[in-house]
């Protein structure tokens, strides 16, 4: 979530999922579930547990939203958390985007990076999207254990939901030196393809980020994807899982293992070939093979819109991407094409929540090798009833 390369090189696992049932060739993996150490059922929105980020900083991907704690953007309904993007103009009016100043200090701005507490329309319009981002940095972190998140993804062009984790302390320095764990991210477009590969809401990704600096942000060897051959991730709830173990990290969807990394003796320094580029001493050399992922991380939930996560040169099968990542002014052309993308958000239909990330629960089970082992079935990957074993694709 912090920074994504526009080039997508992935490990693609094609899955057939319908009503939590998967057909194909099956194997087993053990799922250690110890004591329940974190349980969020979202009966209410507990602001003592979940800290809202309030900022207009556009992040490492130059997104188009600003984050707020307003109730239209984060709320609980029927035991489900909703994080929903809305229009800044609905709050301030359209003229504000072109001529206003968004001062978030009175609202409790807590991220002033790159002047994120005050946004002006000097070089581009004011961030045209209002959304929410929440974290547990002050209430809960953990190192080893199993995470289960039951969630439904949003639907709508250029929406980017993320459920991820960051280190509670940057022990090795700023991003990505101390790591990042992306449990699930999607592009919420209905039909978005890059080089003839579907990259919209039928596909989800899980990723580890690590490296020495933003120019050496390693993610390709630790990026895993699952594609639904029936339906999409915005139609139903799915259980997204993460296992953090002393020797490995695993990602799964509905009990299906989609990716696993067990670092060699050289740890993530070797995985990322950082001895070749940039070279120099191993910044994690005094740790374990799992460093920097052997320290406490906390949860982050957010819904972003636009930015560099949507590559140039891809095809959106109705209206094309209205901005280019190669030019500085990106929010203005995005906003002025709102008649193309806004109808896909369905803001005026039903409960108005189809463009929301919906989270039913988050549960974390402590890692304890002495606890009972539960066995879960998984498949390595399925395409047209034939086994696909972690095929590397360039898309």
UniProtKB/TrEMBL annotation:
Q: Which SUPFAM superfamilies match?
A: Concanavalin A-like lectins/glucanases (SSF49899)
**Signal peptide location:** 1-24
InterPro entries linked: Beta-glucanase-like (IPR000757), ConA-like_dom_sf (IPR013320), Glycosyl_Hydrlase_16 (IPR050546)
GO MF term list: hydrolase activity, hydrolyzing O-glycosyl compounds
Q: In its keyword annotation, does this UniProt entry include Signal?
A: yes
Which residue intervals define the domain GH16 in the entry?
23-370
Q: Which Gene3D superfamilies match?
A: 2.60.120.200
Task: Establish whether keyword Signal is in the entry.
Answer: yes
The biological process GO terms on file are:
carbohydrate metabolic process
- Family recorded in the similarity comment: Belongs to the glycosyl hydrolase 16 family.
Q: PANTHER family from the entry?
A: GLYCOSIDE HYDROLASE FAMILY 16 PROTEIN (PTHR10963:SF55), GLYCOSYL HYDROLASE-RELATED (PTHR10963)
Name of the protein in question: GH16 domain-containing protein
Q: Which organism is it from?
A: Daphnia pulex
């Amino acid at each position: 979530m912090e920074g994504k390369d526009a080039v997508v090189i992935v490990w693609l696992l094609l899955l057939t999922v319908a009503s939590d049932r998967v057909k194909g060739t099956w194997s087993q993996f053990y799922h250690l579930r110890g004591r329940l150490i974190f349980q969020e059922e979202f009966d209410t929105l507990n602001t003592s547990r979940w800290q809202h980020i309030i900022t207009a900083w556009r992040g490492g991907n130059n997104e188009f939203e600003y984050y707020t704690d307003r109730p239209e953007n984060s709320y609980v309904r029927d035991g489900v958390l909703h994080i929903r993007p809305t229009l800044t103009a609905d709050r301030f009016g359209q003229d504000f985007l072109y001529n206003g100043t968004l001062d978030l200090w009175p609202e409790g701005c807590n991220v002033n990076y790159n002047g994120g507490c005050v946004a002006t329309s000097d070089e581009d319009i004011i961030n045209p999207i209002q959304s929410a981002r929440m974290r547990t940095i002050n209430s809960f972190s953990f190192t080893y254990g199993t995470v289960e998140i039951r969630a439904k993804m949003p639907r709508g062009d250029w929406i980017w939901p993320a459920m991820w984790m960051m280190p509670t302390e940057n022990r090795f320095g700023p991003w990505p030196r101390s790591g990042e764990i992306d449990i699930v991210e999607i592009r919420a477009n209905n039909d978005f393809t890059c080089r003839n590969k579907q990259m919209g809401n039928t596909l989800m990704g899980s990723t580890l980020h690590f490296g020495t600096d933003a120019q050496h942000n390693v993610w390709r060897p630790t990026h895993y994807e699952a594609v639904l051959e029936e339906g999409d991730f915005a139609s139903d709830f799915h259980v997204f899982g993460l296992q953090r173990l002393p020797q490995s990290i695993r990602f799964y969807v509905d009990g299906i293992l989609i990716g696993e990394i067990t670092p060699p003796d050289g740890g993530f320094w070797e995985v990322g070939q950082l001895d070749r580029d940039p070279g120099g001493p191993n910044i994690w050399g005094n740790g374990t093979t799992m460093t920097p992922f052997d320290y406490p991380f906390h949860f982050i939930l957010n819904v972003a819109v636009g930015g560099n996560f949507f590559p140039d040169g891809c095809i959106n099968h109705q209206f094309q991407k209205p901005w280019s990542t190669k030019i500085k002014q990106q929010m203005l052309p995005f906003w002025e094409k709102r008649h193309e993308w806004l109808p896909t958000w369905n803001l005026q239909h039903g409960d108005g929540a189809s463009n929301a990330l919906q989270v039913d629960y988050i549960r974390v089970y402590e890692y304890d090798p002495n606890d009972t082992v539960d066995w879960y079935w998984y498949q390595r990957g399925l395409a047209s009833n034939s086994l696909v074993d972690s095929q590397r694709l360039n898309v």
